[in-house]
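Quick log. Single chain, no ligands specified.
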Amino acid sequence: MKKTRRLAISVLACLSLAAAALTASAAAPIKVYRDGTEVVTEATPHFVEGQVMVPLSLAGELFGQKFGYDEKKRILTIDRRSVTLAQSSDRSMSVTGTEGQNGMWEDLRFRSGETEVYLPGKTMGPENGDEPELIPASLTGSAQPDTVVLLTQGTGTGVYVNEAVAYTADLEQIPLEEAKIAMLKQLKASFAADGSAVVEVGGTRTVIPSERLLTETAERGNSPGMGHILRYQVEDGHLTATAGIQIGMSEFIGDLKINYTYENGVLQAGAATFTPYDEYR
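-> predicted structure:
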């Protein structure tokens, strides 16, 4: 009988200690780590009935989403959170967007002062050092500067592509002729019988001797052409576009360039010029 009582007391003691341990564990603050770094916030998770409950505000911060709850309708909404991707130096202008499935930023918005407008296109983001560029320019001849927003589409070895979106000071988008289409209309390129590269643009014919080309004859393709480098820029307040002329898979021999002028409410591509690199002259 005494042994039975001692056993019962021991079991009860163990259960009491276990319950106390569980209670203490549940009461202890729950730390949150994201990618190995602790996240410190005002709202903290709680342990309730065997589950970790995370406040909506904290969940939104952790997962880059915007959570909302309508108590009357009992509806939970989840929206992608907008992030500031770029700002002008005086913070008067900015570009915001949400991260898409493929790592590109979309749903872009351009803000100047108190006005915000939709910004067409997608862009790479600041995590790659390719945030949008906000550049003042003199495009329309207005007393107030216009703005060109440059959006990077892709970068890499032998690859650089961006897009330009132009706005007036009143945030009216300025129609823009596509550079690639304008360039292709003006470009004539071929290989001569001796293997020389011939590039004709705007009535000017440039011949690059075959012996200066590094790519083997069999790997040069049918003709020189525009590769995967197309860069819009603002130079001296004016919009330009430059494309690399390529032979084979990776040899670039010069730049094809156009300047934009504002006529009839449209930024129109002007006459193209081709400039070979020094080693090909």
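The first helix runs from residue 2 to 27.
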